[in-house]
Structure formats: C-alpha cells, structure tokens
Design goal:
about 525 residues
C-alpha cells in the first residue's frame, strides 16, 4: 500500500463578525484610493441583527447588492464619500439546510470605474447542528496543508503542515514543499508563520509542545541543504525544535539510506520524546518492505533508543499515545503473518502494540477483516482504555458492517487492548476516519473525510467533505456534520476546547461553501465551532 507523505492572507469566512483585514485596491491612477477593513461578513439569523464594515476612499462610491439579497439583508446607504461605516442588517433568517451567500460591491465613481471592492455576505442555516465561531483558510497561491496542532498557554494554537507557497500567509519558502508552522490566536487571526526545509520536499506531519514552552515538529525530508544539514538517503525522518515564537533551535535527520518516515510524537515524563513511523530495513529486504519504527530522543534530539517491529511483509506505525499504566500505545498497519505482528486477517490490518518506557514490546493485538483496515490515530479513554480510529473496506472479521466502499471505523479497547466494541460510520461512497478523542461528556469526537450523502450522512457539499462525528460513550452517533464546499476538503484533527466547543484543523481546496477567499490550490483550514 502506498503511504502518502502529504495527502491557507486569511480566509474570510467569519462567524459572528467580519474579517478585519486591510484590503487596499489601487489602480495605476495613484490619485484614487479605495479600501475596506473587511472582505466578508457572516450575518446572524436574528432579524434586526447588525454587522458593519468601513470603506475608506478619497472619492464618491456607490453600493450594489447582488440580485435577490434584499430579501435577507439590507445596507443603510446606497452611496457615500470618504471614510464611511456601512451597516448591514439581517432582514430574514436562513430557512434552508445549506449556507447562503451574496455580495456587496463598492465601486468608486471614477471615469473608468476600475476601483472595486467586493464584500462576501454569508448566512448559515438557522437550524444547523453547530454554530461556526470562525472558519479561516491560510496559505498562498500554491498548495498548503495543515495536519495537526497544539494549544498554547496563552489560548492560541500552533499548527504544523506543509507549504509550497511563497506568498500570502506562507512566506519564506526554501524550494519545493517546506515544513510549515503557523500560530493563530483564539480568534483565528494569524500571529506568525515560519517555513523550514531545503531545496527539495520537506513535510511537517505532527507537533507537540516542549518543556520550555516551544514546539517539536516531526515529519519527512528529502533535502540536503539549508535547514536540513544531513541527508541519509531517500526520504529521512526529520525533527525540528523551535522556541515559543517558532524560531529554530535545532533540526535533525534520522533513519537509514532508504525511505524512513515519522508520523506521530509523544512527550515522555523525563522531558524527551518518543516518535513512531516506518523504516525500510537494509538487510535481506529486496522488496523494500517497511517495519514499525519507534525511537526515543532526549530534549536535544539525541537518540536514546531505537526499536523496529514487524514481520516479513509491510508494517508501519501511524500514531503513539501515553499508556494509562505507563509506557506507550502504538497503532499502525500490518500485512505480515509472522514476526512481531502475528496473524493477518486479510489485507492491511490494524496493529496495536504496548511498549514499556524503553521501547520493549509487551503485548500486541491485531484487528481487521478480509479487506484493508488502516488505523490513523489512538488516544486514551476515561476508563483507562483506548480508542483507535481509521478506515476500513472490510465487512467481516472485526468489522461486520460496511456502508459502501470504505468506512470510518472506531475501535474501543480496554487497558489490555481487548476489543470492547467497534463501529463503522459512512455512506455508499468513500469515507475515512483520521481522528478520535474523548469529550468532557464521556463520549467521543471523531473526524475525517466523507464523499457520501447517504447512510450516516445527510449532506455532501461537493467532492470530499471534512466530516465531524460526535458519539456517546458506546460509539453511537449523537450528531454529525460535514464541512467544506465543491472542492476537496479534509479534517485531520478536532479537539474539545470547552464544553461543546471544538477547534478543528484540516485543509481545503474549495472556493465556496464554508470557505471564502481560497488563496489558490489547497489552503490550510482552521475552524472553531460551538455545538447548539
């Protein structure tokens, strides 16, 4: 099975307010200026509620609202001159089950009428499951992706991903794809960003906080210059430590002269880190099969121990979590029927292993059916057990129900890795599970991708959507919601930051739907929602 190394100027979908950003639109005629402090408004469903934006110009201007929009919002003026605050009032709530949008066009009164600002107006459905606090895209004119994030002590968030851009929100590109660090505040506004890498491709895939208040990012590199001082051969595992402002402290490569990848990292009690991924053994391996790779580094990036587990076929690790009783839980995939992984049930199986603090394998379990069963994430549960989430195409073995093509799966285990229950979620198209974590009510929040509009889903917004599922403690769906537009959208992780409030990280290629102001290609995407 192929393993992918990587599968957003600020987005202007704002919930409950406007995107406050200077948008100067000037022509070659420097005598005329026209600017606005907002590029979008997100209107309330409360009739009479008001929002506003300010236009600054040195000439007269006229306002035109898009056809049909007068049925659900009004502006207080139709023209003006100089710095003017324009008020927008909700005239009707949104009775439909999808977001609606319109535009307000501000045009300077000049001979050529070339000075124009367009404000996007958005109104969510009145009866939506969750209320968006904000939904921002980050990036530049090329492909930009966000995969994971951590919350900081000041209430902000630092996300890690990959960027091809050298403009917009993603500057300082070294060549090819760079590891990308982005900090946003509690309102979703960009605080800082950094790109790290060399002239080839470099990926940031996971992040954790450091004891000093900085960040440790793990990923993959193919470079041998600039921020990458050592190349071991093929793709190397790459780890970079930064301070609280994202400035590099050190960066190191790990692996062999073949392809080595790392996908997840966890802090250790002594201030170090354990990292997991896959590595290709160099001995007696003509087909380049991979092993499960687990290694520990200290706070300076020095290797403390290094372990590999697997059999004679393809095996790899995707996620690591601290164990409830000490040590660590690792989940990954396995095609082997021998070695450290045991019985294969068909195709890629989900492998669960417990290691002690020195990386020694204590026990393992295999879950699956006759199809491909691929895990992405594992996290502890309140009762000391674990929740594994991933994607399955099986309809037998440990997965008795398949809704069509691939499904999102969740497996709940006890502290010893024994299966307590399993659930599959999805519709008749392809659905994938990428994340799962406990919530304060004892249930779980699950995240991933869906191409379906039936089964467990009620709406597809076009292409693949980001999909969020809230369950009870037994894995039964409490509510679910898709996010995105007509392009390809994905949610990689979602964390509860307050009762019923969630911070969501992903990527989007949609120029419509829940996204406004896509910068180009694919953008990083951060959403904050509150359950109604």
């Amino acid at each position: 099975m192929q393993k992918l190394f990587g599968c957003f100027l600020m987005v202007c979908v704002i919930v409950g307010g406007s995107c406050k950003k200077s948008v100067d639109q000037l022509s070659n005629n420097h005598d005329t200026t026209l600017s606005s402090d907002s590029t979008s408004l997100h209107l309330s469903n409360t009739v009479g509620a008001k929002d506003s934006f300010t236009v600054t110009t040195n000439v007269q201007f006229v306002i035109t609202n898009s056809a049909g929009s007068d049925t659900w919002f009004t502006t207080n003026i139709a023209s003006g001159q100089g710095t003017t605050k324009i008020k927008v009032t909700t005239a009707a709530s949104n009775p439909f089950d999808t977001m609606r949008r319109a535009t307000i066009t501000i045009r300077a009164v000049t001979p050529d009428s070339s000075h124009v600002i367009i404000i996007t107006v958005i109104q969510n459905p009145q009866t939506q499951v969750n209320r968006s606090i904000y939904s921002y895209a980050y990036g530049g004119s090329k492909g930009d992706f966000l995969y994971g994030f951590v919350k900081t002590t000041d209430g902000s968030f630092v996300a890690v991903g990959t960027s091809l851009s050298n403009d917009g929100d993603a500057t300082g590109n070294h060549g090819g794809r760079d590891l990308w660090l982005l900090k946003v505040d509690s309102s979703g506004k960009k605080v800082w960003q950094h790109q790290y890498g060399g002239s080839a491709d470099d990926y940031g895939l996971a992040i954790t906080s450091t004891p000093e208040g900085g960040f440790l990012s793990v990923g993959v590199t193919q470079s041998n210059d600039m921020d990458v001082t050592t190349a071991l051969g093929g793709y190397d595992a790459w780890i970079i430590k930064t301070d609280a402002n994202g400035n590099k402290i050190w960066a190191k490569s790990y692996g062999t002269n073949r392809n080595d990848t790392v996908w997840s990292v966890v802090n250790t009690p002594d201030g170090g880190y354990v990292v997991v991924g896959s590595s290709i053994p160099a001995v007696n391996n003509p087909s380049y099969q991979t092993d499960i790779w687990i290694f520990k580094i200290d706070n300076n990036g020095n290797v403390v121990w290094d372990k590999k587990y697997g059999g004679s076929s393809w095996d790899g690790a995707n996620w690591i979590a601290q164990a409830s009783d000490g040590g660590y839980l690792v989940t990954g995939y396995s095609l082997s029927t021998d070695g450290d992984v045991g019985l294969n049930k068909g195709g890629d199986d989900t492998w669960l292993g417990k290691i002690d603090e020195n990386g020694n394998l204590m026990w393992h379990q295999v879950f699956g059916g006759s199809g491909a069963d691929f895990p992405y994430c594992i996290n502890k549960t309140f009762d000391g057990g674990y929740l594994i989430t991933g994607t399955t195409s099986s309809s037998d073995g440990d997965f008795t129900v398949n809704h069509g093509r691939t499904d999102f799966f969740a497996i709940k285990t006890d502290i010893s890795g024994n299966k307590a229950w399993q659930k599959t979620y999805g519709g008749s198209s392809a659905d994938q599970g990428l994340w799962g974590q406990t919530t304060s009510d004892g249930g779980y929040i699950l995240a991933g991708i869906s191409g379906s509009s039936d089964g467990d889903l009620t709406l597809n917004r076009g292409g693949d959507d980001g999909w969020l599922v809230k369950t009870d403690a037994s894995g039964n769906i409490v509510w679910q919601q898709t996010f995105g537009g007509g392009g390809e959208d994905v949610i990689w992780s979602a964390v509860e930051i307050g009762s019923g409030s969630f911070e969501i990280v992903g990527s989007s290629a949609s120029p419509d739907g829940d996204l406004v102001g896509l910068h180009g290609g694919t953008d990083g995407w951060i959403i904050k929602i509150q359950h109604n």
